[in-house]
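Let's see one such:

===
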Amino acid sequence: LNQAVAAARMGARVSFVGAVGRDSYGDRLIELLGTAGIDTTAVLRSELSTGTAHITVDGRGRNSIVVVSGANAELTPAALAQLRPELDGWLLTQLEVPLPTVVVALAWCRRHRVRSMLTPAPVTALSEEVLAQVDLLVPNEIEAAQLAGAASPEGAARWLSRRCGDVVVTLGADGSLWARAGRIVHHEPSRRVSPVDTTAAGDTFVGVLATRLAEGAELPEAMRWASAAAAIGVTRAGASSSMPARSEVVALLS
């Protein structure tokens, strides 16, 4: 949801596939998506409670999150029947829904020549067969290290990029790096800010990254925009409420 809102605020046309409960939280999330201009046709209503994320933030703005999946667990492969291939589109997915559903979504992308982006969070082991289906993997440095079993972000990025299309590892205050075919291609520095709350910084980065790629930007330019948007977001409290409008990102970049 946060990635969808971030993309919509950049002006992307976004459709959301997910599941929420028949409770007040579910009502509020569907309303939030609608307010952002996001198509909610493929959002299912479940008898389970709406999934929640319980977040704590320390004095340096760093966050820790406990996810309770709830209705997300009912997003089965059958729910993907409403996916429609679109020219120049990207499908963004994460691991907050069941892995079999993610695997089917990635395979669907390959069949329809839709580009796929995977944020491996909450991180779990991924086989090389699954990684091979991913066009762009966007882990943070901790997730990358766990997936690759490597000590450094650079080593993890190189290892992962031999197994999927491209890898962009987010490094927090140290920016982000792009690897392809086992080689570090580009490092994008971060903007220096005083963080208030880093919640959803990664989601902001991914939503903006996908939007600029869909618009035809090259990966380094998309990373520059994504980094700027995330920098704005961490100076504000909250998740989707902290995400900047496109005009704010343009102003910072100029």
